[in-house]
Amino acid sequence: MSKHSEACCTIPPIVTEGYAPKGRYIEVDGLKTYTTGPSTATTAILFIYDIFGFFPQTLQGADILAHSDKEHQYQVFIPDFFEGKPADISWYPPDTEEKGKKMGAFFSGPAAPPKTTERIPKILKALQTGQSNIEKWGVIGFCWGGKIVSLTSGEGTPFKAAAECHPAMVEPNDASSITIPIAILASKDEEAEKVKQFESNLKVAKHVETFPDQVHGWMAARSDLADSKVRSEYERGYKTVLTFFHEHL
């Protein structure tokens, strides 16, 4: 068994419904931002959500990252890059022409990667100003957020380690430019050959694992936590990320 399956942390029982977030909302560079974790923590994680925004499963994941590793606690920040107008979860999967058009328009509009990647340095600068005790940063992205992680983990990145969970738009050529340790947790729905090529192109410390019975989105908004198997793999996914960050942050 991979050492990344070992618990470096104690994750509280997963709440299947009615989750009460532990954090609060602040404004950062004009964006509503969920923040969680002890303000005394000197390591922070930029958490880039999926296209569906602030879902309970996503906020619970941020709280898990912030509080579960007692030796390495983190301040976690989730900026609302879509400014209150995320994609509608009913559009996924885009199995009709209408859904496909709506998803396509969203990805070429609010979710166009350059719009987000250009904003990240300003967000980090604003957070660093407000939280002067932060000494280093990690980054994690889910689905669409995974693509943003790939694009912001190259030469000159402000991040020390990265993770992508069920990443969207997997492009093997992106991997060649990544300069920091990275974990990739894929679902059964990502194109297996592209994930394999992405892994082979990485030149950094890495942990690449596919969760073969989980759907795209199982660690974020599309997670059906009422299903015991999904709940178990959601927990294992976050433990895997925490172990990776424990080692590389």
Brief summary:
The chain is α/β, with parallel strands linked by helices. Helices cover 33% and strands 19% of the residues. Strands 1-2-4-3-5-6-7-8 form an eight-stranded mixed sheet, with helices on both faces.
Write structural notes for this entry.
- The protein is α/β, with parallel strands linked by helices.
- Helices cover 33% and strands 19% of the residues.
- The chain is built from 8 helices and 8 strands.
- The chain has helices at 56-67, 97-108, 113-117, 120-130, 144-151, 172-175, 192-201, 228-248, and strands spanning 24-28, 31-36, 43-48, 75-79, 136-142, 159-165, 182-187, 206-211.
- The protein has an 8-stranded mixed beta sheet, sandwiched between helices.
- β5, α5 and β6 form a beta-alpha-beta unit.
- It is globular.
- The two termini are 22 Å apart.
- The relative contact order is 0.18.
- The model is unreliable at 1-5 (pLDDT under 50).
